[in-house]
Amino acid sequence: MITDAHGRPRVLCLTGGHTHDIRPVAAMLEKVEPTVRIIADKAYDCAALRDQLQARNIKAVIPNRATRKQPYAFDAVTYKRRNVVERTFCRLKDFRRLAMRYDRLIDTYMATVCIASIVAYWLK
Q1: Residues 38, 28, 83, CA angle at the centre, nearest 5°?
Q2: Per-residue pLDDT tens for 18-64?
Q3: In whole angstroms, how far apart are CA 94 and each of 31, 43, 105, 120?
Q4: How would you label 37-57 residue by residue, b for 16+ Cβ within 10 Å and e otherwise?
Q5: 32 CB contacts (<8 Å, ≥6 apart)?
Q6: I need a labelling partner for 110 at 20 to 30 A (CA). Which of 10, 28, 49, 90 fits?
Q7: What's 61's domain CATH number?
């Protein structure tokens, strides 16, 4: 999920449970208007993603993984704003149907995610 600075969902992508989160990022970034910075967690610490963001003049605020040999500098103060995304996920999980994953089909589940996102967008 990509959200704006207010925690409103902008781009949603549903992948399989075995797929790493970094795989759909390139396609998701193309769907959103250019921004100043992207805030992400350690799972997105990848040189290819950082290069892609730099090519689009977007500042990457991503902490380094513990295994990185040449760490990148990042703004720890700006990184504190990442809780906006976490709060958006919590808001979506207020819908019990999403939290418990009652829907088995991907189309039905994604429709539920979209409806919950619209409500979350509207309430925010």
Answers
A1: 40
A2: 888 888 888 888 888 888 888 999 989 989 999 999 998 999 999 99
A3: 26, 25, 20, 10
A4: ebbbeeebbbeebbeebeeee
A5: 2, 10, 11
A6: 49
A7: 3.30.420
pTM of the model: 0.80
In the chain, which ranges are E strands? 2-3, 9-11, 37-39, 59-61
Query: What is the C-alpha to C-alpha distance for residues 24 and 13, in angstroms, rounded to an integer?
Result: 7
Percent of the chain with pLDDT over 90: 35
- Spatial neighbors of 36 by CB under 8 A, at least 6 apart, are 58, 59
CA angle 101/103/108 to nearest 5° reads 125
Long-range contacts of 46-49 (CB under 8 A, 24+ apart): 46/22, 49/22, 49/25
Per the structure, how many domains does the chain have? 1
